[in-house]
């Protein structure tokens, strides 16, 4: 038998209306009471009837955008702010507002998302793939709650998601630097566990194999994506006797550190060494010389996320799992003219 709101109230020793207010994030309830009620809800695996609550309230014209919002978050993930701007623009045109909700205090992925879905105070939710879990996915599908996950989930699920194709981006970058004459190519990226890094490396490897080239294992460096670690990784490659003649940098921060190392070793771009990276911002415009980049319009990505979510609100049965937003190759001064 399904757990009801009355079961939760009885177990928590509070009234039916108190549980209802906790579910709807009312400020009338003390934090201590709210914590106790939520703990009972978790223990009893109680799931509020979100669809009924939404029907009762009609549309809120409000969308929850869930992400880490603590100090410095914009530097750690600058793309997310640009995505948010695209989302806000797309939703504002249709009369919706966006509420930013921080997940930096979550004990485990999905805690905040679960509370937002249960509250019934939003018409839809946008959340990154790092901040949901299987319980969240189950709740979204069970309640047909309008949602878009930014990035393919880290587990198999039927939830709706949109992502950029980082394997394709790596393919394009490697193909260009190979066509420009580089033959011994290195890759410096983020951590080995980072999904974006691994997909871009996979795409690069596939493209080079088609050209009869490979990325040697000792030419692959994983870092924390900081300028300092990237510089050190690049120096380790560039000071070898058999240094590479091309470097594919997994992101802007890595490219900044790598270019510092190139300048320190007295090498010239692109005569002595070629370099290609990803993303037009935040650092590519202040690098010297201007790098060749594979650019992804993440603002456009945000607008498409908003558009798809609105479709999902109109038709909760609509299902989408797709890679969107094609990249653009912007030729800078760190690669040579492609060979014919």
Class of the largest domain in CATH? Alpha Beta
Name the shape in a single word.
Answer: elongated
The count of helical stretches stands at 13
Overall tally of domains: 3
> Can you summarize the main beta sheet?
6 strands, parallel
Q: Which residue ranges are poorly predicted, with pLDDT under 50 across at least 5 consecutive positions?
A: none
Q: Structural class of the helix and strand makeup?
A: alpha/beta
- By CATH, the superfamily of the largest domain comes out as Response regulator
Determine the CATH topology of the largest domain: Rossmann fold
Q: Into which percent range does the helicity of residues fall?
A: 40-55%
- Can you write the helix and strand succession as a string? HHHHEHHEHEHEEHEHEHEHEEHEE
Distance between the termini: 70 Å
Strand content: 15-25%
Q: Strand order, biggest sheet?
A: 2-1-3-4-5-11
Mean of pLDDT: 88
Would you count the extended β strands for me?
A: 12
Gross CATH architecture of the largest domain: 3-Layer(aba) Sandwich
Rounded Rg = 24 Å
Question: Could you characterize what this model shows?
Answer:
- By secondary structure, this protein is an alpha/beta fold.
- 43% of the residues lie in helices and 15% in strands.
- It has 3 domains: 1-46, lambda repressor-like DNA-binding domains (434 Repressor (Amino-terminal Domain), Orthogonal Bundle); 60-164 and 297-327, Response regulator (Rossmann fold, 3-Layer(aba) Sandwich); 166-295, Rossmann fold (3-Layer(aba) Sandwich).
- The protein has helices at residues 5-12, 16-23, 31-44, 50-57, 73-76, 78-92, 111-119, 134-142, 166-179, 195-210, 227-238, 252-264, 298-314; strands spanning 62-67, 97-102, 124-128, 147-150, 161-163, 185-189, 220-222, 246-249, 274-278, 292-295, 321-323, 328-330.
- β6 (185-189), α10 and β7 form a beta-alpha-beta unit.
- The radius of gyration is 24 Å and the shape is elongated.
- The model has no long low-confidence stretch (mean pLDDT 88).
């Amino acid at each position: 038998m399904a757990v009801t709101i009355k079961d939760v109230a009885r177990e928590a020793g509070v009234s039916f209306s108190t549980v209802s207010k906790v579910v709807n994030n009312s400020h009338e309830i003390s934090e201590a009471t709210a914590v106790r009620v939520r703990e009972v809800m978790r223990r009893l695996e109680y799931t509020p009837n979100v669809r009924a609550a939404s029907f009762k309230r009609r549309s809120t014209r409000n969308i929850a955008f869930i992400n880490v919002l603590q100090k410095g978050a914009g530097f750690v993930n600058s793309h997310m702010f640009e995505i948010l701007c695209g989302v806000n623009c797309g939703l504002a045109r249709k009369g919706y507002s966006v509420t930013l909700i921080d997940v930096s205090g979550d004990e485990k992925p999905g805690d905040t998302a679960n509370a937002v879905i249960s509250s019934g105070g939003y018409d839809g939710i946008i959340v990154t793939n790092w901040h949901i879990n299987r319980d969240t996915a189950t709740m979204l599908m069970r309640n047909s709650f309008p949602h878009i996950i930014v990035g393919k989930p880290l587990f198999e699920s039927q939830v709706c998601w949109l992502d950029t194709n980082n394997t394709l981006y790596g393919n394009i970058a490697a193909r260009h630097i190979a066509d420009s004459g580089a033959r011994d190519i290195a890759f410096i990226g983020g951590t080995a566990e980072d999904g974006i890094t691994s997909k871009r490396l996979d795409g690069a490897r596939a493209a080079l194999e088609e050209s009869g080239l490979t990325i040697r294992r000792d030419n692959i460096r994983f870092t924390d994506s900081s300028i300092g670690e990237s510089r050190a990784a690049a120096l380790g490659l560039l000071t070898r006797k058999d240094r590479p003649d091309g470097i594919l940098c997994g992101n802007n921060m890595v490219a900044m550190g790598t270019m510092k190392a190139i300048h320190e070793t007295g090498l010239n771009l692109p005569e002595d060494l070629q370099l290609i990276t990803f993303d037009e911002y935040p650092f590519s415009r202040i690098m010297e010389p201007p790098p060749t980049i594979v650019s992804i319009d993440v603002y456009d990505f945000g607008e498409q996320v908003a558009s798809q979510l609105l479709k999902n609100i109109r038709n909760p049965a609509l299902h989408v799992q797709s890679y969107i937003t094609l990249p653009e190759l912007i030729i800078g001064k760190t690669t040579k003219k492609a060979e014919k």
